[in-house]
Amino acid sequence: MSARDEILARIRTATAGVSAPNSAIPAGSSPEDVVGLFAERVADYRATVVRCTPRTLRARLTAALPEGRVVVPDGLSVRLPDAVVDDGLSPAELDACAAVVTDATVGIAETGTIVLDHGPGQGRRAITLVPDVHVCIVRADQVVADVPDAMPRLDPAKPLTWISGPSATSDIELDRVEGVHGPRTLIVLLVG
Amino acid sequence: MRVALMVTCINDALFPDVGKAVVTLLRRLGVEVDFPEAQTCCGQPMVNTGYLDEAVPPLRSFVKAFDGYDAIVTPSGSCAGSARHQHGIVARRSGDPELVAAVERTGPRTYELSEFLVDVLHVTDVGAYFPHRVTYHPTCHSLRMLGVGDKPTQLLDAVRGLELVDLPRAEECCGFGGTFAVKNADTSVAMVSDKARHVRETGAEVLVAGDNSCLMNIGGALTRQRAGVRVMHLAEVLASTEES
Amino acid sequence: MTGTFVGMPKFPVAAREALADTQLRRNLAHATATIRDKRARVVAEVENWEELRLAGAAIKDAALASLDEHLVRLEERLTAAGATVRWARDAEEACAIVAEVAQAHGIDEVVKVKSMVTQEIGLNEALEAQGIAAWETDLAELIVQLGDDLPSHILVPAIHRNRAEIREIFRRRMDGAEDLTDEPAVLAGAARAHLRAKFLSARMAVSGANFAVAETGTLVVVESEGNGRMCLTLPEVLVSVVGIEKVVPTWEDLDVFLRLLPRSSTGERMNPYTSTWTGVTPGDGPQEVVVVLLDNGRTRALADQVGRQALRCIRCSACLNSCPVYERVGGHAYGSVYPGPIGAILNPLLKGVGVDEQVDSLPYASSLCGACFEVCPVRIDIPSVLVDLRSQVVDAHRGGIPSRESVAMKGAAATFSSGKRLGLAERAARLGTGVAARFGASAWTGARDLPRAPRESFRAWWRRTDGGRS
């Protein structure tokens, strides 16, 4: 018998007569000021949150960027003429970039989370991982209250990255410190 | 209402004054209790050590003693927990449908003392007087198996003269755990030493709890450390009056 | 990892050694208190936390009840999305599959995402035997690996080490680490520098998965540092070893666990990074994706009526952090990669009882205080499973040479069979001493006094005074 068939047979024997309980998904939270809470909760992770309008976005973005090479994905909602558009840069080339600028798919207020689905404007996963600064543009209408509101807006067929603050660890005495392997600086430009 | 006292094997043999305190207290509140002499032990020491077959004889004597009463009151959160949550397991294992049916009657009618006072008699001021500085240890099975919540401290708060002080890390286990104290003696001692230290930190004269097994453990460590803190069962504090 | 749990002594023996290590006791007390407080704060923020726990338990129970159907669907979806699905009955088969994938690509070095299951199967040692080096990339795993140590916690395998000890390990084993201070940020920076080149050049990664969504074929890894993202994104080949109990039926179900896990685990509203992926994405990430579905005792646990609830576990470690026994003895005493209350049930359930006395000692490594059940995000009633496993241990030894304990229990059962017998025994034993003997007086009196025996039992008093009326 193959491993597959043997495991499935063992499962069937073990679960014979076991019935599945029903379950409903509990509601999420419903804060009054969803966008305000999002800004507050993102900042709680020691990320930088910059609120701006569509008109001031470009100026705030330029001011937020560090010195050095900036990489952007194809289809970014803001034009950055000096930036390098990713066309399959190698990990080493990405490592030489100081920052990356992307759009986002969803923002979750309750948890201070940004989700990327790596579509146009967000790029493949590596570009938001290797550069040390990630500047992420989130529009107010992309922000939802809680995790259950985010799920239907996300397509599981695409790779998703949920980001809640800069890279961090609690592995030394359970003390949270920011800055391990992912971007050590996360700047969120919250538009609207 | 027919009320029976389940005194528990530990109180019967080692702490008879606690059984007497329950009788005095309930009598003062107008409740006359029976002591069915067929009772022995709830069987928890066997069940918690893995000896289910050996728990059947004490369970039979439990049912013989208590089946038919409207309420079975016990000064032990742990033994009440055993009656409510473990007797079904032992009875089913015995394969005796009559025993299963009997424990389905006795289990829900078994009350830990503070539950009986607050939930059944609807009283929190039992007319007690105890002019001492007291700290309270909520025993694990009262707290987490029965969910007695703040009933014991409601009762203590209403005792005249009593000053109740918070116990640091009150909800942490004292390390008794029945045969755990023997099988894992070193770990148990480490736990009870910390519990005794927290008790000393409160500056209380008396440590109160609703289970004498836990009090025997913590009290044993306190006297060994010559801490000068007495341990008393909740029933004894609630039974105290100006006259006593 | 050079350490191994094979041949560990029984829990009480291992615990005694651990208790004597005062540095360890201090490290554990500090770390567990920190994480308990954090968890309590963020859990209190969620109004319907109890409802979420019930939902988490129900979803996992539903997944387990039809596990065969969900696994077949998962396999179907993964295959359709370009992944290869392999099945492994045990550790040996799983390790062989991983080694075979590496060898097929001529790879002799892999980077690893922190994963309990690859520790469970001893993957690093198995790969090493095939000439393949496995690099742990999670900070705590790195500390354990560089220190030739053993993991002692599910979430923070190096919880038993403090910052000064970690600095010493790094100084000894990392290039250019002579001037490190013991600031956690500096130590984390050293780990970043140490692993950077490995990540950028790695050709193959090995991961586990926190969840596998059957209806979509999606795998999920929940992490903090970004080492997971590095491993899941940069290499050409990705092998994920997934215990068959990791399945959740639908994408919506995942929502509940993303709300339960971070708050229970690191005490955060959300962990820094969660990655989800479904097979191969052209032009993004590994282009060869292999998923190994592992049994290794899980179907044995599934067949246990009381114990199967342990398979709901989402490896948050809240039960470890809240356990008074774990806090004092640490993880190594449990002799397994799964320590603490969940380990005390999971190891016997996966391995079976009555064979190895170390495994048989685990269900007794608890005072049954119930703190673990109270914090478990999927409501595993660990105390009830412990008690049930104890009866399985006792039953497995029935019929052999009776132990002192079993003789004592039989004696107690006879004494407790009637009130009259108990009354006689109380008198014969002059009260108290008999009870004390049953509890094992010497183990007791090492650190505690015994209560003085009263003049008469309650039973005798009641009879003599007619319940105090005469």
Give a verbal description of the structure.
The complex is a heterotrimer of chains A (about 190), B (about 240) and C (about 475). With about 190 residues, chain A is an alpha/beta fold. Chain A has one domain: 3-Layer(aba) Sandwich (Rossmann fold). Chain A contains 5 helices and 12 strands. In chain A, the strands form 3 sheets. A 6-stranded parallel beta sheet of chain A has the order 1-12-7-4-2-3, sandwiched between helices. A 4-stranded mixed beta sheet of chain A has the order 8-5-6-9. Chain B has about 240 residues and is an alpha/beta fold. Chain B has 2 domains: about 120 residues, no CATH class; about 110 residues, Rossmann fold, CATH 3.40.50. Chain C is α/β, with parallel strands linked by helices. Among the domains of chain C are: about 260 residues, 3-Layer(aba) Sandwich (Rossmann fold); about 60 residues, no CATH class. Chain C contains 24 helices and 10 strands. In chain C, a hairpin with a 4-residue loop joins strand 5 and strand 6. The mean pLDDT of chain C is about 95. Chains in contact: A-C, B-C. At the A-C interface, helix 1, helix 4, strand 9, strand 10 and strand 11 of A face helix 2, helix 3, helix 4, strand 1 and helix 8 of C. Strand 9 of chain A pairs antiparallel with strand 9 of chain C, so a sheet runs across the interface. Chain B: One of its GO terms (cellular component) is cytosol.
